Amino acid sequence: MVLHLAELDDVSTIDPAEGYDTASWGFEQMIFDTLVRYSDTGVDLVPDLALSWESSADAMTFTFHLRRDARFSNGRGVTAADVECEIERVLTPATRSKGMEYFRSVVGAADFVAGRTKSIAGIEMPDPYTIIFHLIAPDPIFLQKLAMPFAAAVPREVAERWGEDFSRHVVGSGPFMLKEWLGGQRIVLVKNPYYFVSGLPRLDAIVELIGVDEALEWLKFETGEIDVSSIPPAEFPYVMKTPRLRALTEKIVTISTMYMGMNCQVWPFTDVRVRRAFNYAVNKGKLIGVLNGRGVAAHGVMPPGLPGYNSRVQGYAYDPAKARQLLEQAGVPRNFSPVLWMRADPTEMMRAQSIQQDLALVGVNLVLKPVAWPPLLEAVRQPRTAELFMFGWEADFPDPENFLDVLFSRKQWGANNDAFYFNPRLDALLAQAAPMSDLKQRYDYYREAEKLVVADAPWVFLHHPVNYVILQPWVHGYTLNPMRPTRLEKVWLSPRPERR
């Protein structure tokens, strides 16, 4: 009962206060629990550490009743104070947590962040198994924010003992616990013997090899060395035409958007004409063809499947003549050579090369700069460092705020607004939309906000990915989620041939 996986990039952290990418979250959700979480296959919230909860009519008070049988992998019981500990870690400036913005609305958070108080006044714990959050303003999606790893239960004594090195010594109450992490080589998780769900996890261990590119991953899958694999573009047609292999695949349209970001503070991307020109220059149909059709063309920011999605957003058609005209109007010389920062990955390279070909047709000589995932994240979030970058955004929670506010508001500069984009009209719209609990009104405001972003074009809107994986025939219980990495506690393995 050991599941073998492989991945190209090492994870940057397994500390839930710091991790803010799908690679980190995959491990964090196996090691840590939150008050509520998303279901295995969808976006509905289900109990996790909290067995029940209530929210006030004005969406300013949220009360959770914790289960009493949850224990950390060191055997200690979990209480409400362990959830409070993690919120405090996220709101501590020295942690540099990207999740800080999600909890600034808690009463007393500002005083805590500024160092004026040692605790957060708006977190109340009348007993060890009840936690109440009081907010300074209505937040209809606060419950969804508590499903993020930023709100996981963390034992304070362990976090304080290890400090900045907690990521290498994590202790959580989830179904698995960290046994070994050899940087650049492998990560090994084993079952948490104290996990509160009887009979889970079904696996004894998970071993993920690191530094395995897509081609080698496929080779290892073919030889039975790993149990789950992505499907390289070159192999995809063969897999789909082979009934035996096609039957082993799983697919799902993800609630995510792939894009090429443009740094709006770096010339010539300070000029909206240039940003629009890049949108007109990219042939999305060709790009999706290169990816074997594993995508849906993006016309705007929000993906299909996200509540509030607007199917009427027009976006930018493929029009290289229009693109060249706009570049000339903006005074961009021919053979302009911007650098595109991107993840060092074969599929990303194919995507980037398709865009490179398109831009060459309008007189732009795109230079590709593939780097590993952690330094890519670091570079892009520094001002005036990466003029162009290839990224994707997968929903943290199923609401337009998570795309529009998190990725485009001024307050997210240096955090998630990697384009360093700012439009005061947009920020005003986002501020009006955020407290609205009437969903029709809420979505109307966000649709107007999306129109502004599309017109300002801080991104080249590329596509919404369709995720495919292939499983060995002995792997059972593996399900894909449109918004989260797959949960592995219910996965089990039947007998299989000897590994070669």
Summarize the entry for a quick read:
This protein is of the alpha+beta class and 500 residues long. It has 16 helices and 20 strands. Strands 11, 12, 13, 14, 15, 16, 17 and 18 form an 8-stranded mixed β-sheet that branches. Strands 1-10-9-8 form a 4-stranded mixed β-sheet, with no helix packed on it.
Task: Describe this protein's structure.
With 500 residues, the chain is of the alpha+beta class. It contains 16 helices and 20 strands. It has helices at 22-31, 80-91, 109-113, 142-145, 156-162, 214-222, 236-241, 243-246, 272-281, 284-290, 320-329, 346-360, 373-380, 401-408, 424-433, 439-456; strands spanning 2-7, 36-38, 45-47, 50-55, 61-66, 123-127, 130-134, 176-182, 186-191, 205-210, 228-229, 249-253, 256-262, 295-297, 339-343, 367-371, 388-394, 459-471, 475-476, 492-493. Strands 11, 12, 13, 14, 15, 16, 17 and 18 form an eight-stranded mixed sheet that branches. Strands 1-10-9-8 form a four-stranded mixed sheet, with no helix packed on it. Helix 14 packs antiparallel against helix 15 (424-433). The two termini are 17 Å apart.
Write the layout of secondary structure elements.
Layout: E1 2-7, H1 22-31, E2 36-38, E3 45-47, E4 50-55, E5 61-66, H2 80-91, H3 109-113, E6 123-127, E7 130-134, H4 142-145, H5 156-162, E8 176-182, E9 186-191, E10 205-210, H6 214-222, E11 228-229, H7 236-241, H8 243-246, E12 249-253, E13 256-262, H9 272-281, H10 284-290, E14 295-297, H11 320-329, E15 339-343, H12 346-360, E16 367-371, H13 373-380, E17 388-394, H14 401-408, H15 424-433, H16 439-456, E18 459-471, E19 475-476, E20 492-493
Helix pairs in contact: 9-11, 14-15, 15-16
